[in-house]
UniProtKB/TrEMBL annotation:
Source organism phylogeny: Eukaryota, Metazoa, Ecdysozoa, Arthropoda, Hexapoda
Gene from which the chain derives: Ckap5_0
Keywords from the named record: Cytoplasm, Cytoskeleton
Entry's Gene Ontology molecular function annotations: microtubule plus end polymerase; microtubule plus-end binding
Gene Ontology biological process: establishment or maintenance of microtubule cytoskeleton polarity; microtubule polymerization; spindle organization
Pfam families (alphabetical): XMAP215_CLASP_TOG
Gene3D superfamilies, per the entry: Leucine-rich Repeat Variant (1.25.10.10)
Gene Ontology cellular-component annotations: cytoskeleton
Main subcellular localisation: cytoplasm
Name under which the protein is recorded: Cytoskeleton-associated protein 5
Length: 265
């Protein structure tokens, strides 16, 4: 009976613990003591490493069981629990922020699922998270961004409008917690995708960034960035060509004819 009660207490405790283990996870990844979160599709060793890191971090065990269940319905339960946790969290959200890298990594795994409900609920949850991070004036760590942003950008190539629209909205939120110059570099990587929808969406997002923040986001320089973007004007896909031209129009409003000097045409 006592054992059952103890287990119940463990199961009912808050989802996350406030600790400093995120810093150690960061060090382990840099020293290659842990796998760097980088893959085309997630292999089992990445999934298992994340599960072990969550257990070590003291994340609620029932939540972990649901998160790593083979049935997508348990993933929906996990996202529901995560969303409900916002209502009971402290104003400083320190337990959530302490485990942010792990949460973002788990969400990237859901990007590879085929169930649309899990994906949409996961994206909705992300919007809540980034609202909180913005309100807390949090700055995303480079490792948090590198293990999440590239996978988010891949979803710009999703065939569903609602998915792409939500991803665009999240990218706009991220601009408040991560330098635009660094987001730009991830978007430029996204333009190299074989998925033409992703290429055009990335270029459209660049246009939006230029309209909102100017060409200061262009890295490593306006000239180099313009030459790279110009390559997409010759893309075989019409929507990609149009998106690339629109990006130049936005930049032209800032630089005028000097822009042509950057691309050498």
């Amino acid at each position: 009976m006592a054992t059952g009660k103890k287990r119940e207490e463990i199961d009912n405790k808050s989802l996350f613990q406030h600790n400093n283990l995120k810093h150690q996870r960061d060090i382990d990844e840099h020293k290659l003591k842990a796998l760097k979160w980088n893959f085309v599709t997630p292999r089992e060793e990445f999934v298992e490493q994340l599960r072990e890191q969550m257990l070590t971090a003291g994340i609620n065990k029932v939540l972990i069981t649901n998160m790593f269940h083979s049935d997508f319905r348990y993933h929906l339960k996990a996202i529901e629990s995560l969303s409900e946790d916002f209502n009971t969290a402290d104003d400083n959200y320190l337990p959530l922020i302490s485990n942010l890298d792990l949460i973002l990594k788990w969400i990237t795994l859901r990007f590879f699922d085929t169930n649309p409900s899990v994906l949409l609920k996961g994206l909705e949850y992300l919007q809540h998270i980034f609202n909180i991070l913005v309100s807390q004036k949090y700055i995303l760590h480079d490792t948090e961004a590198s293990s999440f942003v590239p996978y988010l950008i891949k979803k710009l190539g999703d065939p569903k409008d609602i998915v792409r629209n939500t991803v665009r909205a999240i990218l706009k939120q991220i601009a408040f917690v991560f330098p635009n110059s660094k987001i730009f570099q991830y978007i430029m990587e996204g333009i190299k995708s074989k998925n033409s929808r992703q290429r055009s969406e990335c270029l459209e997002h660049l246009t939006s960034m230029v309209e909102d923040y100017g060409t200061s986001v262009f890295q490593p320089s306006v000239a180099v960035a313009c030459k790279e973007i110009a390559k997409s004007i010759g893309d075989r896909d019409n929507s990609v060509r149009t998106a690339a031209l629109n990006c130049f129009v936005a930049a032209f409003f800032i630089h005028g004819e000097a822009l042509f000097n950057f691309v050498g045409h």
